[in-house]
Backbone:
């Protein structure tokens, strides 16, 4: 099994190594005891080394007194398993059309493979974790979601209600909850739910101090490809309205804005950057984009 190689901090002068720790101290103090929701996706989901670096970050956060909650999807693995079983994969407006057989595959992949793998890795890294889906509790009650033009997408849901108690019960026991993006419909059926949507809804309902969304780009970018390190909610929404935000950033930024409007500070960061969660959360400079719910509120 791949392992993360030790960082080369041993080659740094002792004073510089100490400075790294001192810089993190105010942030550790500020967020001690606070809930932090991390949505795992993109390359960090697919690459074993990058995934393990993220999980190391979560274990460290737990040991310094924070309460991380991990949310994951698994679109690529669902597509691969569907193909292996001879099932057609079809998307409408970026959303997977989900019939009953595809929903069975999604549950098998998310709760039968990905969640257990993540839990096992966290345990190997010295942490404690437990997997659950939105159906457990139930944690996520969902309503059927239609496509952009009112298309029937099948068993695709939007979060209507969140019951945070199952997640909080785990964090109170010192565990890292690993939440698969499946919800329970009011009709008693299982629904496939976008993982960004799940992460944002959970962050609002817990409530979390931070929502950290991992992606395959450096953060939110402007019209000329420049990194926008800090945005107000209005500025982030303008990127959606004027078309600057494209493709996969559209649902991610939309979910981020909904969480920010409820008072959660949201960070969109590059999951390919080793230990990007720690760098964004525990350093002054950070590495991605922060959508600050307080920025511009007095304008």
Residues:
């Amino acid at each position: 099994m791949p392992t993360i190689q030790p960082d080369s901090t041993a080659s740094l002068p002792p004073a510089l190594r100490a400075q790294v720790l001192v810089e993190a101290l105010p942030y550790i103090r500020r967020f001690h005891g606070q809930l932090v929701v991390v949505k795992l996706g993109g390359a960090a989901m697919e690459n074993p080394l990058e995934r393990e670096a993220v999980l190391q970050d979560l274990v460290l956060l737990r040991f310094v007194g924070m309460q991380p909650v991990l949310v994951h999807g698994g679109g690529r693995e669902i597509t691969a398993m569907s193909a292996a079983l001879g099932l057609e994969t079809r998307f409408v407006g970026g959303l997977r059309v989900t019939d009953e057989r595809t929903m069975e595959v999604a549950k098998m992949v998310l709760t039968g493979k990905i969640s257990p793998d993540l839990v096992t890795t966290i345990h190997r890294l010295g942490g404690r974790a437990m997997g659950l889906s939105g159906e457990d509790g139930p944690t996520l009650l969902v309503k059927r979601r239609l496509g952009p033009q009112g298309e029937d997408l099948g068993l695709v849901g939007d979060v209507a209600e969140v019951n945070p108690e199952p997640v909080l019960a785990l964090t109170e026991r010192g565990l890292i909850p690993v939440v698969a993006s499946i919800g329970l419909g009011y009709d008693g059926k299982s629904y496939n739910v976008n993982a960004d949507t799940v992460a944002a809804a959970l962050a609002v309902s817990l409530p979390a101090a931070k929502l950290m969304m991992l992606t395959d780009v450096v953060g939110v970018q402007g019209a000329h490809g420049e990194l926008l390190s800090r945005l107000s909610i209005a500025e982030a929404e303008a990127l959606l309205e004027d078309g600057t935000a494209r493709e996969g950033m559209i649902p991610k930024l939309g979910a981020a804005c909904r969480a920010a409007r409820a008072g959660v500070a949201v960070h969109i960061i590059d999951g390919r950057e080793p230990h990007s969660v720690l760098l964004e959360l525990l350093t002054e400079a950070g590495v991605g984009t922060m959508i600050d719910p307080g920025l511009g509120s007095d304008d």
About this structure: The longest helix spans residues 100-124.
